[in-house]
Design a protein that fits this description.
Layout lengths: L2 E8 L7 E7 L1 H11 L9 H12 L10 H4 L9 E4 L9 E9 L2 E7 L15 H18 L7 H18 L10 H7 L24 E14 L8 E13 L6 E6 L8 E6 L8 H4 L16 E5 L6 E8 L6 E10 L2 E10 L9 E7 L4 E10 L3 E4 L5 E5 L9 E15 L12 E9 L14 E3 L5 E16 L15
Parallel strand pairs: 6-21
Antiparallel strand pairs: 1-2, 1-5, 3-4, 4-5, 6-7, 7-11, 8-10, 8-20, 9-11, 12-13, 13-18, 14-17, 14-19, 15-18, 16-17, 19-21
Helix pairs in contact: 4-6
Length: 491
């Protein structure tokens, strides 16, 4: 469902043929070459191609009423679809070439057929042919501006818009899903793009209020065992996301990440391909350089020309000294009754303000919960509908002591068996924490909105944010068997 090339010609009576627009897609052409193999026929130059098309359409040398290569009765004529032999009869073909004539305008597109060149499948089975006919029809309506004979100025202005229009509706040779009849009118407004050429990877440009949004999200993972014989593990990785709604074809933006004096340096930085320059010290900082005291601590500058959609400017890791929440979990089982104790402590360096914070205690390889006698020092404990999960909702703040506790007993006396897990047997159990803390990163990484530099014709509004979220944050039962990870996988 792709096009190898698209053309528009103008053929006024008494005037020479003029090529108004030509767009070729090298990526689609490469696919055509792979599919055709030794029978591949390259698309000739626009001048040569024009001669072949006009000969087929009877526009070249119109005084000749009969041309054998066009009018022979053995040929199968198809009104909109042409077959060209640019290298001569029997030496390969370009097919199907769709054409549409409207007044002095001639529009054509060469479709990609996803089958070997030796076979000529039925046109009714080719989605690209249907797409091509629809595209040419909508293009004709766009260029004619609703009239049979558009005035010269209107036609010229719409032809000038075609490079931008096709970047929207047919990026890299594949038409978008949005109906073209809807998109063509929206794209008919001229833009002040100046002399800049729009890159192929950018399907359009922003029109309207300018806004730059930058968010830093750090994710923390942890495996805590509550035992002196087992080392607790944790790691932190971050993503810097950006959404740029800035006018211009290729606006230039620089985002700067900064750290406080006691912040943890960023390591293993991977930048988006649109970032065009980076300090070498930014790229060479690695978490595998143990004991290296020369780690670069910023500021980290990322200059780029952004795409239209939200994208990840960079990702990184950081070695922080402690996890945000420390915990212990003790569970003992006797005759179908479980005695449990959970202690959680929020580290003093972490902001005591959560968007949400929950501790989930799942129970596997048992029947459903029966009686429950559990007390908490903060928040509330709830049993899931399936009666195999205890949810401790801690809310948005820890108490002033920054410590919370859950303790009590659970009796499993239900008639229905709960879920199974081959890992959680013989006292192996865990608490899994889910939390999000706004306006905080463990490394201290942040983006000051005044440090975001935008080189554009308009001054945008800059919005920045940061937050910390948990993922795979486990606290294992200290009295049971616990799985161990190699220390090189975390920290």
């Amino acid at each position: 469902m792709s096009f190898r090339a698209i053309w528009v010609w103008s053929h006024e009576k008494g005037e020479t043929v003029r090529l108004c627009f030509s767009r070729r897609y090298s990526t689609v052409e490469h696919r055509a070459k792979v599919l055709s193999g030794s029978q591949y026929v390259a698309v000739p130059d626009d001048c040569v191609l024009s001669q072949h098309i006009f000969s087929k359409l009877g526009l070249e040398d119109p005084d000749r009423l009969y041309v054998a290569s066009r009018d022979d009765c053995v040929l199968h004529q198809e009104s909109l679809i042409l077959e060209l032999n640019p290298d001569g009869p029997g030496r390969g073909k370009l097919w199907p070439l769709l054409t549409l004539t409207h007044g002095a305008l001639i529009m054509a597109c060469l479709c990609l057929i996803d089958s070997p060149a030796s076979s000529q499948p039925p046109l009714s089975n080719q989605v690209s042919v249907c797409q091509g006919i629809a595209l040419l029809s909508d293009l004709q309506a766009f260029l004619s501006a609703g009239s049979k004979t558009p005035d010269h100025d209107t036609l010229a202005s719409r032809l000038d818009l075609l490079p931008s229009v096709f970047s929207h509706i047919c990026p890299l040779g594949t038409p978008v899903d949005t109906p073209h009849t809807t998109m063509f009118p929206l794209l008919a407004v001229p833009t002040t793009s100046g002399s800049q050429k729009q890159p192929a990877w950018k399907s359009g440009f922003h029109k309207g209020k300018s806004t730059v949004s930058v968010s830093v999200t750090e994710t923390v993972r942890s495996m805590q065992y509550g035992s002196h014989s087992k080392q607790d593990l944790w790691d932190v990785y971050g993503n810097v996301m950006c959404k740029c709604e800035v006018e211009g074809v290729q606006p230039s933006i620089t985002v700067t990440l900064s750290l406080p004096p006691n912040g943890s340096p960023l390591q293993d930085i991977l930048a988006h391909p649109c970032v065009n320059a980076l300090d070498i010290s930014t790229l060479t900082s690695s978490s595998m350089d143990y004991g290296d005291g020369s780690t670069f601590s910023g500021p980290y500058k990322f200059p780029f020309s952004p795409p239209l959609e939200p994208f990840r400017v960079c990702s990184y890791t950081s070695q922080v000294p402690v996890p945000p929440i420390l915990g212990t979990y003790h569970l003992n089982e006797d005759l179908g009754q479980v005695q449990l104790n959970v202690l959680l402590k929020l580290h003093e360096s972490v902001t005591n303000s959560f968007e949400y914070c929950e501790a989930h205690l799942p129970f596997f390889n048992r029947c459903q919960m029966g009686s429950l006698d559990v007390k908490v020092t903060s928040g509330q404990a709830e049993v899931s509908k399936e009666k195999n999960l205890l949810v401790w909702v801690l809310g948005q703040k820890f108490p002033k002591s920054r410590e919370v506790m859950l303790e009590g007993a659970i009796h499993f006396s239900g008639q229905t068996a709960g879920p199974t897990d081959p890992l959680c047997t013989d006292g192996t159990a865990y608490v899994k924490l889910y939390f999000r803390i706004p306006d905080l990163t463990l490394s201290g990484c942040c983006v000051d909105q005044h440090s975001v530099q935008v080189y554009s014709s308009t001054k945008p509004r800059v919005v920045t944010s940061r937050d910390l979220v948990s993922s795979e944050y486990y606290i294992w039962n200290s009295t049971g068997h616990t799985p161990m990870l190699p220390s090189t996988l975390m920290m």
